[in-house]
Amino acid sequence: MATAKIVRSDHGQTVELPEGISFRSEEVEVFRRGDEVVLKERDRTLAEAFQLISDLPLDEDRIDPPPQTRDHDR
Q1: How high is the pLDDT of residue 39?
Q2: Is 71 a domain residue?
Q3: In whole angstroms, what is the distance from residue 18 CA to residue 1 CA?
Q4: Is 66 part of a structural domain of the chain?
Q5: Angle ∠(38,24,13) on CA atoms, nearest 5
Q6: CB atoms within 10 A of CB 25
């Protein structure tokens, strides 16, 4: 099991994670679960999800075939 080093300062504590354990984001959620302290990647908000979607290309030049005619459409 890997261990992390705790560094104390006037502003609180910093946890130095060992090599191979890292986070993609700059902020994480922290909470207690029993006697454990858990660091967790922050869940993306709905606003962040909409921003990601709005950054996608619109495919304006895309050519779609007409919808298929089905028996129940007649």
Answers
A1: 92
A2: no
A3: 11
A4: no
A5: 45
A6: 8
Cβ-contact 28, 39 below 8 angstroms: yes
Counting the structural domains of the chain, the total is 1
pLDDT tens, residue by residue, 46-71:
888 888 888 888 877 888 889 988 88
DSSP, res 19: T
Q: Does 74 have pLDDT greater than 80?
A: no
pTM: 0.51
Residue 30 phi/psi, 5-degree rounding, is -130, 135
